[in-house]
Amino acid sequence: MMLEAEFLQRALLAGLGIAVVAGPLGCFVVWRRMAYFGTSLAHNAFLGIALGILLGIDPMFGIAAAAVAVALMLVFLQRQRRLADDTLLGILAHGGMALGLVAISFLEGVRVDLLTYLFGDVLAVGWGDLGWIYGAGAAMLAGLVPLWRPLLMISVHPELAAAEGIPVLPVRLAFMLMLAILVAIAMKVVGILLIVSMLIIPAAAARRFSSTPEAMAVSAVGAGVVAVVGGLFASIQWDLPSGPAMVVCATVLFSLSLVAGEFAKRA
Amino acid sequence: MPTETPPLIEVSDVSVRLGGQEVLKHVDLNIHAGEIVTLIGPNGAGKTTLLRVVLGLLNPTRGRVMCRRGVTFGYVPQRFAIDPTLPMTVRRFLSLPKRRSRTDIENALEEVGAGYTIDRELQALSGGEFQRVMLARGLLRRPDVLVLDEPLQGVDVGGQIALFDLIGRLRRAHGFAVLMVSHDLHLVMSSTDHVVCLNHHVCCHGEPEAVSRHPEYRELFGRDAGRALAIYHHAHDHGHDAHGNVVPLNRDGTPQRKTGSERE
Q1: Do residue A212 and residue B97 have CB atoms under 8 angstroms apart?
Q2: Which of B19, B56, B147 sits opposite A82 (nearest CB)?
Q3: Which of A32, A94, A203, B52 has a CB 3.0–4.6 Å from the CB of A26, allowing a cystine?
């Protein structure tokens, strides 16, 4: 059986860990239309990689720092009301990415394999990475429990939530920081370019089969797990890049959910 | 409205600048327990901004808002859409962020005549049903002041009168004050204690009868608005330019235009 190889076990565990956290967080990304925010966080990973190499630490920490900085900057920039959110995000995403790429080009004597970062390399995940994925993942899920209802209320209507006494800014910030950390720990599994897909595709696939927000979060985890397992096996079977294989698998699930939804409507 | 008791909410000399524009200028507004206060005024006059200031969602640039200690607000924002990807039934929505028992939710919905919507998805409600659900949400908070931003928006004409009657009925049953923004002048005039005509500043205010006769009101809403009630002329001392700035009146009662030399 192919799972006897230890690196495969680690890859599977890493993918499952990310899927479990990305399910509920991804639902909020979809409900709150924050896909582009996720993309901006991911783009700034380049800045984080440069930072990590410069400081001689694991790029994962650099990416987390860059993503947190983007989240804070967005909240700060939103206070001036002249530019729309997507314009601000576009500036942050591409400005940060370009700055990161320029910084990397300055790092003499360091060969950075950007492809690994772009598409991830789940088969190279070590036990230390797994520790981070599960440690940070468990902390985020625990943090999400008390934030769940306030976040739902903010997703329905932020002003109404504020008028009813929910501390909107701290809750929003906490959620953005969680996304920032998820981007950092998920980078090795699916890569910078595809991280957002692990947030939004399983959640979108879960929508048609869910009548409560909680059911949708659980279904999104389920869809994510199927995508990870299916993608990993496909990647071993046909020698495919594992990150993209997982995302293709998630996309197929989403398409099936559309078809199943149509049938359910007609029946 | 002469009242002995101090007001629940006292807005004094509030000005708000947003993005370089002075949206509110020296606004005073009192809300007493149990009264219905309606804000009217043209689009962009700062009505919603004033509601946001009262609710504490926006800090005024100048002036202050005093609320009696422990005042609870119920808020019904302007008609809003909920993302279709968010599965949310009426019952679940009314149980957010605080858990509420099914009986409490059923009772509140029955009171607004929307008991049958309890297991529907929010996105599937009609305009009138949605506003009733929002009223039920307000009731569940046992408010001292219910704040409504254009509650008749997206409600068909027949439903508008019923909804207005309902708001009046709920006010009598629960004794809360109502602060609302409305466009529908006829309905406002017939079921409000106090009307405040706002165009960045308070143009005029008072009982509906008096306001409808006020020339500034008629200037803002056209003569027809005044014709719905008896037309009554009385002295008025200023008009408005296109920005809502106060300008002196010409002899014929039309607002004076600024000449080039007066511009800064």
Answers
A1: no
A2: B19
A3: A203
pTM as predicted: 0.85
Task: Considering only the beta carbons, identify the residue of B57, B83, B89 that sits closest to A162.
Answer: B57
Structure tokens at A138: 């468990």
pLDDT tens digit string along A158-187?
Answer: 999 999 999 999 999 999 999 999 999 998
Q: Is A152 on the interface with B (CB under 8 A)?
A: yes
Residues 165-204 of B with CB under 8 A from A: none
**Alpha helices by DSSP H, A58-119:** 59-77, 85-106, 114-119
Neighbours of B107 (CB within 10 A): 14
Chain B environment of A159 (Cβ under 8 Å): 52, 57, 75, 77
How far CA B149 is from CA of A129, B80, B240, in Å, comes to: 51, 11, 25
**Cβ atoms B140, B108 nearer than 8 A:** yes
Quickly count: other Cβ atoms within 10 Å of residue B264's Cβ. Answer: 3
CB of A70 closer than 8 Å to CB of A180:
yes
Partners of A207 on chain B (C-beta within 8 Å) are: 85, 87
| Residue A165 backbone dihedrals phi, psi, to 5 degrees | 95, 10
* CB within 8 Å: A211 and B96: no
Q: Can you tell me the ipTM of this complex?
A: 0.86
- Rounded Cα distance, A133 and A135, in Å: 6
Q: Are B97 and A166 in contact (CB under 8 A)?
A: yes
Residue A210: its chain B contacts at CB < 8 A?
87
Q: Which of A81, A155, A160 sits opposite B86 (nearest CB)?
A: A155
- What the block records as the tokens of A177 is 């920081």
What is the C-alpha separation between B41 and B149, in angstroms, rounded? 13
Is the Cα dihedral A210, A212, A215, A216 positive or negative?
Answer: positive
pLDDT of residue B210: 75
Q: Is the pLDDT of residue A263 over 60?
A: yes
Number of A/B CB contacts below 8 angstroms equals 66
B54 touches A at CB < 8 Å = no
Position with higher pLDDT, A229 vs B97: A229
Strand arrangement, sheet containing B145-149: B73-76, B145-149, B177-181, B36-40, B194-199, B201-206
Q: Which of the pair, B217 or B229, is modelled with greater confidence?
A: B217
A contacts of B89 (beta carbons < 8 Å): 211-212
Q: B85, A32: Cβ pair inside 8 Å? A: no
Output the average pLDDT for chain B. 82
**In which element (H, E) is residue B30 found?**
strand B21-31
For B61-88, write each residue's pLDDT tens digit. Answer: 999 999 888 899 999 998 888 899 999 9
